Amino acid sequence: MSLIIGRDVPWNATWSGEDRHEIRPCRFAGNRLAIWSPFALGSGKPLFAKPHTVRQRKSISEMRCTVCGERTEFGNRWWWPRGSWRNDWWVSTEAPVHFACAELARHACPVLRKAGHDPIPFPEGEQVLFALVGGEDTDRDFGVKVNGRKVVGHLKLAWRAPWFLQEGS
Ligand SMILES: [Zn+2]
Predict the structure, then answer these.
(1) Does the structure show a pLDDT above 60 at 130?
(2) Which of 107, 112, 123, 152 satisfies CB 3.0 to 4.6 Å to 130 for a cystine?
(3) 67 CA distance to ligand 1 middle (Å)
(4) How far is the CA of 81 from the centre of ligand 1 (A)?
């Protein structure tokens, strides 16, 4: 059985053949140093719980759908409001999705099914943040040596006073 990206496996997921890391400048992190993985979609087995670091940054910086990898356009840009408060900002690592991709993912993904959330239209007014990584945990988790450098991990989306938290809560 072959797995189809965008249907059986989200574009965002790491494949076992991509599961190694280096530190390289990344154009999706403003050319800052970042955790890098090779790009080999479909090689080995999908690791569903492990977003690919470069694709995660690409999806947020280019507003690409986390399920199929294509760009989302205004009017068909949806989002799961999953995140947490951090210093007066609502912060999230979720990238946007197309409506049809959200529907598909909701049926296919056990985490989303269990959470039972509905996707919402992508909220305006977002800021993009570069989340820095470092220290022994990073060196161990990614098998790299940060050595005190400023290294970006994921990109995050952040809002102040987001309407979607006030409404219906
Ligand atoms: Zn999509």
Answers:
(1) yes
(2) 152
(3) 5
(4) 17
Q: Could you read off the pLDDT of 58-106 as tens digits, one per residue?
A: 999 999 999 999 999 989 999 988 899 988 899 999 999 999 999 988 8
pLDDT value, residue 51: 93
Distance from residue 113's CA to the centre of ligand 1 (Å): 18
Range 89-92 contact pairs with CB under 8 angstroms and sequence separation of 24 or more: 89/127, 89/158, 89/159, 89/160, 90/158, 90/159, 90/160, 90/162, 90/165, 91/129, 91/156, 91/157, 91/158, 92/156, 92/157, 92/158
3-state SS class at 52 = coil
| Alpha-carbon dihedral sign for residues 83, 95, 29, 44 | positive
Query: How many Å lie between the centroid of ligand 1 and the Cα of residue 53?
Result: 18
Mean per-residue pLDDT over the chain, rounded: 91
What is the CA(154)–ligand 1 centre distance, in A? Answer: 20
Going from the Cα of 8 to the center of ligand 1, the distance in angstroms, rounded, reads 13
Task: Examine the pLDDT at 168 and tell me if it is beyond 70.
Answer: no
